[in-house]
Protein 1
Amino acid sequence: NNNPIGTPTTLDDKGQGSITLPANTSGDQVGVVIKDGTNQSPATNIEVPLLAPQLGAVDTPTVQLPVTGKPGSSAQLQDPSSNQTGKPLDDNGQGVVDPATGNVLVTGKPGATVQLQDQSGNPIGTPVKLDDQGHGTVTLPGNTSGQQVGVVIKDGDKESPVTSVAVPLLAPQLGAIDPATGQLPVIGKPGSVVQLLDQKGNPVGSPTTLDDKGQGSLVLPPNVSEEQVGVVIKEGNTQSPVTSVDVPLLAPQVGTVNPATGQLLVTGKPGASVQLQDKDGKTVGTPVILDAQGQGVLTPPVSTSGDTLQVVQTSGTKPSPASEAVSIPVLKPIVGAVDPKTGTLAVEGKPGATVQLEDATGNLVGTPVILNSDGKGVLQVPVTQSDKPVVVTQTVNNVESLPSAEITVPLLKPLLETPDAATSTVAVTGKPGASVQLQDKDGKAVGTSVILDEAGKGVLTLPVDTSGDSLTAVQTSGTTKSPASDAVSIPVLKP
């Protein structure tokens, strides 16, 4: 069409000079004319071979590398070993390496193929065919960061010379986040360090060093659930552009149940509600709202001792995947207060567990009880334990819990045996060292009091004039008086 192409050149004093052919004239026939004032020579035509693509400088913030070549041809990056790197150029630009996406825009011969190569000439990545405008896009793999790669254009059996380009530190390429594990696959420069960043650019969690293939994974803390985070690659003092990713609602992270307190530390999304559930997904216990740091404490019910539970967090109406399973140890039973009139102590634990009273030194006290299907039972505290501390343990599958909180037994009512008419006496059991006194139905003292021995045993003498009466007994320890014992009927005594 006789339209000017490129920039004119002025010949030197010897009539010599050179013209640089644009890369997109590859395979075309072009003409050259000489102009002198208003005079122009006839055109000399020349067939243009497949030229090497022309590359700009890599723009680090955008990781773009401008490339110009034969229209329709394909441009491809290569690593130092001439392996293909990434995809050939697309039709949205002119061959600039975008460090954020790894895309390189290439211009060349329409319909030609662009291929990346490593330094040994091996193809890297997938070749790209240039469109009818001679444009295409090659995507550089993240693990080519810091390397020098080549771009060649192929048209049929013809291949252009290689144009080399130095690849900057590219933004990391990210996989999909696994909401159950919080793991995020990352690809980047081999041996470099990848770091998770919050929305303010502050580091989150621990960095990871990529392997010799440029692969690795980051573990996202559950308190970044439903936020946008960034990932950068660091090498020395150089940092790549940030690749952002939206984090789904992750499974909460759980600690280990403390058998002494029964508490379970949970970490998740700040403000989310966390809930224990059993293996069938049924809720267990009471949910907890996590604090501003995404932390909270769940208390597994004592009835779940020996079970395996999980935790889910809910944000709005959306539940997360379940946490890793948590093994609940045999927890301390929950105990009420000792009834001073009956000497009974209510206990809660795992259904079917055996609960046992122990004294302050760990010796067994009284008779053990098996808890019912609701995990409830009642222990009878021996009267000899009056004014003493006791604890309760539960045993599940031969595993004994830690002792419950210490309970101080009040001064219990003494226990009267059946009166002996032959000896006019009645045996009594109570607190060792306590004073025991008979009394009538009006609460008046009857007969002489007795000090119980170290086993809490004693014998009261029945006055003969109490024959046929109904009497009770009370024990006194210091200034504390117990409730009255159950009444006993006094037989007719010998005169």
Protein 2
Amino acid sequence: MKLTITNEAAKWYIEEMGLVPGDSIKFFGKVYGPHGGFSFAIAKEEPTNPLMLITEEGVNFYVEQFDEWFFNDKEVNIKMRADGYEPEYEVIVK
């Protein structure tokens, strides 16, 4: 499992979510839609048992040990879309 976030994407989350240094953003998998597919979700939440944690601009971005089932075979790279509108997730399954 690998998680990366560009500085530009981190700044987008900080601005859009009103984050300040010391805040934390959790990435996790959730069931989405009527067919039981999974998607990425985020929440402003303090880590309790992080599997992976990176800090950009003083804000922690992390995945909890509990969510390893969703991320264990993936490399997730978070970067801004080419048009700069919002972040996009590049997921590489290992």
Protein 3
Amino acid sequence: MLRILITNDDGIEALGIRKLAEALLGLPEVEIYVVAPASEKSGVGHGVTFRSALAPSPHPFYDLPVKAWAVEGNPADCVKGAYHLLFDEETKPDIVFSGINVGTNLGRDIYYSGTCSGAREAVILGIPGVALSYDNWFDQENYGDVVEIIRPLLQMFCDQARGEKLVPEVFWNINIPHLPKEKIRGVVPAALAMNHYEDKYNLEAGGYWLTREYPDRSNPAPEEDYYLVQRGYISVTPVHIDATDRVLLEKMLEWPLVKQWNGQSNSQTGGKPNGDRQNEE
């Protein structure tokens, strides 16, 4: 039996998380747990709660045969809290699915997205994580054929989780066009788009409110998720949680200050290279 944990950032009563559970319940030999925010937490990024208590509360879930808890916290709190508080060492989740988000999480959206943080937190904890978002921002109550559309993808990820074939240190970001099943053109690997929003702050009651103008999608690069979803493809992006630029890291060894510091350290340690830190302890 594959143990699946579901979370989201739209809240436990959002329609998208119900659709995700329905799609997963159609798969064989799965056991599903839902741990999601008690209220909407869109745009919270990877925030976690330190200064108040987390108290997972059992919550009804659309009469579906799943166990569900609501948490007064963020998506990363839900995954982290579930991992440590609701499961013992023998019953940890085998995979985490986060979503289905209202609206896409394309390109740089992943840094703001609570949906993506749920999948990312899973990977940090050593569990495969998959984020799913649906391009229904302007038609939020209409999930159309999404259950049928995503079920084969969910099956693929579950099969790979059973075989421990999913790459560690990577979460998967999936974006689904808001189209009927017959108009979906396929599933394709996609790079993150380097989209740029135009931020505006409008003075209204109580202060300034952030509004965002969507980036120009008219001329994106053909390998990017924006381009592909716009043209009817489901985009799947592997996102590594190691954000270090290792090429630049090597070039930094040529910085004058770094070379000067290494030279000083070598003279003080009898010629021992300062960069060779693994043998210092």
Protein 4
Amino acid sequence: MKKYDSTKIKNIAIAGQAGSGKTSLTEALLYKSGATDRLGKITDGNTVSDYTPDEIKRKCSVYTSLSSLETGEFKVNLLDTPGMFDYEGEAVEGIAASGCVLITVSGKSGVRVGTHKAYDLAKKMGKPTMFVVTKLDDDNANFNNVLTQLKAEFGPTVCPVVVPVIADRKIVSYVNLIEMKAYKYEDGKAVETDMPTAEVSEKMGYRIDGLIEAVSEAVAETDEALFEKFFSGEAFTQKELTDGIHSGMNSGIITPVTCVSSTDLSGVDMLLKEIDLLLPPPSEKDAMIGETVDGEAVEVACVESDPMSAFVFKTVADPFVGKMSYIKVFSGKLTPNKEVVNATTGSTEKVGKLVTLQGKKQIDVAEAGCGDIVVAMKMNVNTNDTICDSARVVKFAPMTFPKPCYKMAVRAKKQGDESKISAAMTRLMEEDLTIDYKLDPSTNEMILSTLGGLHLDSVVGRLAGTFGVEVETSVPKISYRETIRKKVKVQGRHKKQSGGHGQYGDVWIEFEPCVSDDLIFEEKVFGGAVPKNFFPAVEKGLQESVKKGVLAGFPVVGLKAILVDGSYHPVDSSEMAFKMAASIAYKEGMRQAEPVLLEPIGSLSVFVPDDNTGDMMGELNKRRGRVLGMNPAEKKGMTEIVAEVPMAEMADFTLLLRQMTQGQGVFTFEKARYEPLPANLVADVIAKNAVAD
């Protein structure tokens, strides 16, 4: 593929609800443009963009893939993103690298939560959007219903530019509202035909002349001169319509709607034409605000003669070919064997081999100009890094990813594989910034955090399939604690005689509640009842003892110990004997001081649609939560509920929230403090965690 100027490149992310036809649309665009010589199918596992074993098995996208095509005078980079909410991090990467987002909407199921998520993410990043209504060949598809939905849910920016003409529940032609021409398909080729009659339009539920008028009205809003021309009654030229929609997309006031069938390919060539005419190249939309080494803001324009700057938006950890870094070039040009500055770390790196991708197929490239997307092989950079020429060191803002909230404990199936898991997870965390893997010191478990059950399955599958290490997962243990409720004074006496020197240590210790998480040790011994040189041994014995409580073996908090008396033997007393005596006193003191179990309580902030607030309040009550308040969220139609909930009740909350809100809900949850465990739950916790005396 030849090198293209930044004015002749289109970077397009394809996003939307899972199952809305993103990968099939990618396949259709590649095939129709001549980039591929066959039309792959998801059911056959032979599409260009879903090529990993996980994707072929699941029959859905798990990763954002890169492919490209040539149409007219443009190179188009396609970023096919997953629609499943568990893989939202991949969608973030694809949309961040794009210049425009095609949002697929099934003609059968219409606007879904994933449609809104893709649209919101695109708008948050300032990306122009276009809706593509798919699956029009399905018997249950209804374009009019979908168009009505789009207008109702996304407002007056929605502007149809290609619509189907339907007669007897079948598509007979498509109307391009910009050209004001109709096309029918004969042997897969578009042939101009008559515009639909008024009678046909009435039966479809939308009038073509009314839609043409709506397009003109939308275009009139983009420019003062066009506004005056529209209201003077003059018709727009085709160029004025095209330029107006193009301008409206760039400014975010127009979201065009087109439609296709990816199976019989009708409408796909018309979409390619709209990509040519309407979607912005990097030269128009890729100016970035960076930060210099002095912390000053600087605008980086998409100019090839400027110093090179680029952003790593995705990483693939391939154990066979090494690290693959997906890079968007924002200025200058990137070439192999060039030394660049990693502005994120301050280090100097050498650019290795550069390739572009057609799914899994690698194609060598000599250089990547500004506006283009390329993959660097075996380069020591990570996702969110900025690389640049030393002549202008600038750093771009990192992408923001959803936080992983679905937590499971992980352990190796084979003894000795723990180090393999750590090494593999380090590689996977470089690749996926929505997973986390770390030790929970309070339970001594390794905790894997992901975005959901499917995401967890994918990570576990990668560990086994790619890195050769099998793991088992389980619900994480709850880090309960133990404490006391009253003050007691007890004796701990250790005496042992077995020939020769014996062992003797005797202490009296007062135990009382306090507010410290750590043991507080004091001594108030008078008259040398316990020599000072044994005080450290007593403290050490207590410090070791508080690691296990007497109820269920959990660490003890809120405990103050005061050594007040004791006795010793001039020959048989030793540090070990006094450690043992302190341990005996601890166990007896804990039993007498009314020990209780404490459970961790977390602070919850959960955002749900307004319609789900009642259900969520009820759910939190069932989970022993205390609702502290409700606040209107920044996003319209959403409410924030603030509550405190025991951590033991949160294991399945991620899945419950997704099911209740159809994926719209999000939450954060952090440990806040400990509180006494309700009496009716104590016996069960003790039974599951009881320790031998």
